[in-house]
Amino acid sequence: MIISKAAHTTSSFKLLATHSHPTSTTGNPPKVVHERRDAVHREWKLVARASATAPLTLSIGLVQRNLERAEEFMKAVSHPDSDQYGQHWTAQKVVEVFSASDSAIADTKTWLLSEGVDAGRISTSAGRNWIKVASTVGEAATLLDATYGVYENDDGARIVACESYSVPAAIKAHIDFITPTIQFDSGMASTRGSVNRRRDAFAPKTKKLPPHQHPGVDSLKNCSEVTTPACLRALYGIPAKVEPVAGNSYGIVEFAPQSYNQHDLDGFFSAYGHLPNGTSPILNKIDGGFLSDEAGSGIRGESNLDLCYAIALTYPQNVTLYQVGDSVAWNPATNNNFLDAIDGSYCTAGGGDDPLWDAAYPHDASTAGAYAGPPQCGVYNATKVLSISYGRDEAARPASYNARECMEYMKLGLMGVSVLFSSGDTGVSGVTGHCLNPDGSYAPVWADWGRFNPLFPGTCPWVTSVGGSALPPNGTVGRDREVVAYAFAPSGGFSNVFARPAYQAAALATYYARHDPGYNASRYNDTRHVRGFPDLALAAQDYVTGLDGGFQAFSGTSASSPAFGAMVALLNGERIKAGKAPVGFLNPVLYAHPEMFVDVVEGSIGGCGTPGFSAVAGWDPASGLGTPSFERMRRVFMKLP
């Protein structure tokens, strides 16, 4: 992964490598600015100077070794022309190859000790990538030549942050970033509404189904109006008869308070799945693993949707649910808390996630449903396929933070895990409809102007981003080609942070040569050298889902991802039965074999006062490579070693 040049980023945060200005404190080594914030998100206002005596835990992210070779390493195990295809790494090899150098750790600790920090307050992560310092605001300000203030948003939440910070010139090259410093949460509310307290969830649109729209279990008569397991099997050739395969696994990740309901699953499986009552996922609880008993689509919708289709399409193969986080609304769990639980080396000693965004445990035990234990690190193995229907604006957090998380997905890919993310449901606008000002800050919600706001993790080059398609109105399975989903606008576009991966180079070159969208840098990153997303599309409209004892229909790419994940899990089963490794990171094979897809050439995704991007022949930001054929994918992947 390579971060694109700062001149072409719209993030409000810039990594300063060549424009630093030395500062110094008498008796201490000279320092240079490491990161500076250009603007404060409009949701936050400076209200006070932070108290010097307030406790503050600094987390220092050390530069990992060999990240510049990520593309080389991944190509070796995932490109179809590689003689090492499928020879995935062990977790131990990942740690050995990427951990920070001995000198990075030693030099950083030496600096801290020279500044008077007690050795007992300094700890190093098991993965040797983080150093944590138990400190105060005053001490941190001195260490970093920073001025900390208290910022407040419209909801009354407060954080401590600074405008810039500096580190000694001699150790600058050892440090990725330090938190808390310039970071700000964007203050975005979930588009699910106030019932759902997730800050970064994609919200499937929901509607109640009239009685005449309830199709029979195997009916294909109105797949253009409602989507069922039978419709998906018919659209993509997904096999109806599945054999469980030892060593195969498929995981769905949910974040509290989203919670599935077994009664709702039973109702759906009875009507649409031919599955027995009580069919449920393997439950892996993480940091509390809170399951709410509240009703309504805001709490049950996402989890019920994901599990109804993940299980129905793969049964009797087991599906694992990673239920992440507790009921504490002001400090919800994030992708990084999940990554901690499946990769202990990602944790710092005592937990080192960013306290501004990632839930920092233990929580106050007096709060009902709170998790008061230590953060769970390395307690579960990752399943061979992971589908995650949550994301955020790429601009919501610093490029350094996004890059760190993205590289964790790269490491999972090296270990043979396919990581799938929903692309999003708001076209070229952000999660809650924010476009961007020229400086990277947020324009007013649903403004009809501004730069496009791509969504992360879909822009990470080491995940497979799944967009949305649909049969045209009154379309028929087997007769009509799918179009871009139109009940909502699937998200797509180009990253402002991540460079174009090699596997996507040819597809993007063809797209620009034949279908230049016509916008300039005032609208999007038009350098032609950045990651484009999504990678593919799948049916995304009106998925019949069990809810509150009945049925509702949900639309959104949060339906597409778990459905595609089921296809990947079934492919893994075929390969494992043949004595082969799971498919792992998919994208190099997908782009090398576009014949596995049915091209989507109709429809568009708009926003920011523009038509956005249109579906065209070949890859495009509206539909990726198109919709997959299971049989074509099976033929390609089964020929690989």
Which terms would index this structure?
alpha+beta, 13 helices, 641 residues, Rossmann fold, 2 domains, 22% strand, single chain
Short characterization:
The chain has 641 residues and is an alpha+beta fold. The protein has 13 helices and 31 strands. It folds into two domains: 140 residues, no CATH class; 435 residues, Peptidase S8/S53 domain (Rossmann fold).
Secondary structure elements and pairings:
Layout: E1 13-15, E2 31-37, E3 44-49, E4 55-62, H1 70-78, H2 91-98, H3 102-114, E5 122-124, E6 130-136, H4 137-144, E7 148-153, E8 158-162, E9 164-168, E10 175-179, E11 205-208, H5 229-236, E12 251-255, H6 262-272, E13 282-286, H7 297-314, E14 320-324, H8 335-342, E15 385-388, E16 392-393, H9 399-414, E17 418-422, E18 434-436, E19 442-445, E20 455-456, E21 464-470, E22 483-484, E23 493-499, H10 505-515, E24 530-533, E25 536-539, E26 543-547, E27 550-555, H11 557-577, H12 587-592, E28 597-598, E29 604-607, E30 610-614, E31 627-628, H13 630-639
Parallel strand pairs: 12-14, 12-15, 13-14, 15-17, 17-21, 21-25
Antiparallel strand pairs: 1-2, 2-9, 3-7, 4-6, 4-10, 5-6, 7-8, 11-27, 16-20, 18-19, 21-22, 23-24, 26-27, 28-31, 29-30
